[in-house]
Write a structure and sequence with these properties.
- The complex is a heterodimer of chains A (317) and B (261).
- With 317 residues, chain A is α/β, with parallel strands linked by helices.
- The N and C termini of chain A lie far apart (52 Å).
- In chain A, α5 links the parallel β13 and β14.
- The relative contact order of chain A is 0.12.
- Helix content of chain A is 28%, strand content 28%.
- Chain B is α/β, with parallel strands linked by helices and 261 residues long.
- Helix content of chain B is 28%, strand content 29%.
- In chain B, β4, α2 and β5 form a beta-alpha-beta unit.
- In chain B, α3 crosses α4.
- The longest helix of chain B has 16 residues.
- Classes of the chains: A alpha/beta (317), B alpha/beta (261).
- At the A-B interface, α4, β7, β8, β9 and β12 of A face α3, α4, β7, β8 and β9 of B.
- β17 of chain A pairs parallel with β13 of chain B.
Amino acid sequence: MTEILVLVDHVDGAVRKPAYELLAIAKRLGSPSAVFIGTADQVGAAAESLTKFGADKVYVVDDAAVKGYLVAPKAEVLAQLAQKAGAGAVLITSSAEGKEVAGRLAIKLQSGVITDAVDVQAGPVTTQSVFAGNYTVQAKVTKGTPIITVKPNAAAPEETAGAGAREDFVPTISDSARKARIVASQPRVASGRPELTEAAIVVSGGRGTGGNFEPVEQFADSLGAAVGASRAAVDSGWVPHAYQVGQTGKTVSPQLYVAAGISGAIQHRAGMQTSKTIVAVNKDEEAPLFELVDLGIVGDLHAVLPAATEAIVARKG
Amino acid sequence: MKIVVCVKHVTDATADQKFEADNTVDRVNVDGLLSELDEYAVEQSLQLKEKNEDAEVVALCVGPEKAADAVRKALQMGADSGVHVSDEAIAGSDAIATAKVLAAAVNKMGGADVVVTGMASTDGAMSVVPAMLAELLDLPQVTFASVVESQGAEFRIKRDGDVATEIIGATAPLVLSVTDQSGEARYPSFKGIMAAKKKPVENWSLSDLGVDASEVGLGAAWTAVVETTARPARTAGEIVTDEGGSGAQALVNFLAGKKFI
């Protein structure tokens, strides 16, 4: 069966959930081959969990010649592996870096690239959400090896073990791929909350918080949710940019999205419009976001959220 | 220092964006403008010019006739000259073909020390063209910069990734993409608007670039849209006005009813 390459997204060997989702999608298209770029001491545990979630093959690439440089070396690794394996498709997580790797790979392999798929079925035929979520587009690659970046939550991970054959691969990294150096790296401080793009529930705050995110955070914690924000809140310096939901931040598609004090500019809607259930709390009954909601509360978030938090905590008792 | 800033004319996100019968974006009947995210690229280009002697900024645009508006806006903000690549054969091009045309235009200019772009277009929003340009021009990419620092040809940028914030270093020539965190874009001044009318804009076709028409356009795209569907409008939900705690009660009941708690 044709190998489908999956670039494994991981942090120091800890495989991130979207990689398992890609393996589930790869199974629909052929035989999943995970591509793990990391250090030798990380491989064991990672290969085991990748196999558990369906990898028939795990390519292990020592990252000595790759780490410390931005994007380009990873594209070279994938290009060489795709050619060697005669891959049927290459799947990559739709992050900023993932999309850049895909873009460079497309030129190397002279192949078409599709980004931000929210679904991939046999063919492969992809589904994307465009124009701020107002349109759904189905597309396919018509030349070369399909290269597809897939958004988190596009599929459920499947715990069906694959063959898990390990194969070391030594890539040839060119000098020109090592011109953009990672001079320093500061890991993001863990918030203890779910990852924004992966969370089942997201609670976001906007201008209406007036800079006080406590009601938003406490309500989020009562639901086990991730915390997001509008651009207005980020630009005001109230929360880090990593919280931003919208066109220039994260696109989320959770089961439940709660927007507190967010009016709902098109740029924000672009990042959350495809959420399954939407709730908004806003003092302004004219807020455009109320057009999208399943439930809208016209009221002050500083009163509504703490009272709701208290009731939820009491219920959980 | 030669700075080439790539600017895209996009359909207005606040307008009623739609598709043509051939599944390409309707760019004729929908109002367009310079992509907001490219204004940040123009701003960083101008700041680079201000700190480097003998620097010039060329605004480069690929797009139909009315895309000239995007070039004009960049000139009004302060770019020195413009290049507008326009050719009927380009319509419907995918990201790769767009990157090829941009790369050919940069080469025709005799190369650039810094090619500056926005982080994404506000219509297609793929975010792949800067990386593709770097690949095609064989230049280092320093992309998604929220902070740009440079001393002569040495660049350092801050890049806020999913799991870490990184400092990326590279030496020009290079491709630089900047985010909306990189600094507010300036508004054109009255003087800038008047001066822009006298600034040179060159109009190039594919044959000027030596790009074969068969390499670009909808027919040469390496991807195909099978179907486009307007998302059904969300049905109006329930709106509750909070009075004496009724809002919180309605919220909790709703969440319980949907089994979120």
